[in-house]
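Hello,

Our lab assistant flagged a job as stuck in the queue for most of the afternoon. It eventually completed. Since we weren't sure the result was trustworthy after the delay, we are filing this so someone can double-check. Below is the sequence as submitted and the structure that was eventually returned. Let us know if re-running is recommended.
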Amino acid sequence: MRCGKGFSVRVALAVLPIVAACLSVPVFAQNSTDDVHIPPRIQPPPLKEPEGDPSLRTHTKPVKVDVNLVLVPVTITDPMNRLVTGLDRDNFTLFEGREQQEIKTFSSEDAPVSLGVIFDMSGSMSSKIERAREAVIEFFKTANPQDEFFLITFADKPEEISDFTSSIDDIQGKLVYTIPKGRTALLDAIYLGVSKMRQAKFPKKALLIISDGGDNHSRYTEGEIRSMVKEADTLIYAIGIYDHYFPTEEERLGPALLSEITELTGGRAFTIDNPNDLADVSTKIGVELRNQYVLGYRPKNPGHDGKWRKIKVKLNPPKGLPPLRVYAKTGYYAPTE
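-- returned structure --
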């Protein structure tokens, strides 16, 4: 469509057929600065290394954002959940705390990405496993030739199935031999996936979680994982495959858990009740990663105080467009040295 001063806004229609099949867990648009503030950072307790499980003993000093330039990936969707592309720098206003920041860099190109899939192999996935495997392959098919990706599966505990690779066939081959069994150590798997991202080649990093239930077997707590993903500078997306009823309390809380974790990073969670929709939704997420805007700014507050700096992105859309929704990470921790 044509909008504004000769301005062209394009909506990615390729994903329209699946909009009705899946609705993202509600995430409020970043469209207000009324509640923006910079509270003092409450130092979370150090993550405890689980005993007796070498696969989870990967904790190192948290990676801090280079305060000289903060990069904020942003996704824009319309009321029909379609991607909106074609916007430019003038369509965005960015705040850190209550103070507006100057957007120094702006891009919307398809930059190489380090991708990780965290794949539920617990016993409850048995009836959905073939569709879920297909979804992983379709997700990787959206990658460009420079991308790298890895695979972690989890049941009673997480396991790295594939190291960073650019071969979809390699991951597909290893995924075929996995057998669903056991319980759901989802939080431990997220921990392992975020830790693995410290080996990533590219600045742009993303995780995709595919699961059918809440956590019921992890050593790490929700609070520990929330603190970790806030520091990780990694986008997290999730596809939750849920039945119409929740037989356990953990499963009832599963959608909210995935929504909260993804929302912190600027990603989002999708809820579906039909495994046949898995491949389409994973493709939608892959396309979304390719159509993000990246805003870069140098904070007006350069202090190395270790505090949580809240970020708010406000959209100034061209005239004539319907209400649009903004997805962006909620903040970052400033360095301490």
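-- support follow-up --
The delay was a queue issue, not a problem with the job. The result is valid. The CA atoms of residues 244 and 300 lie 49 Å apart. The chain has two domains: 2-21+28-41+53-109+298-333, 114-290.
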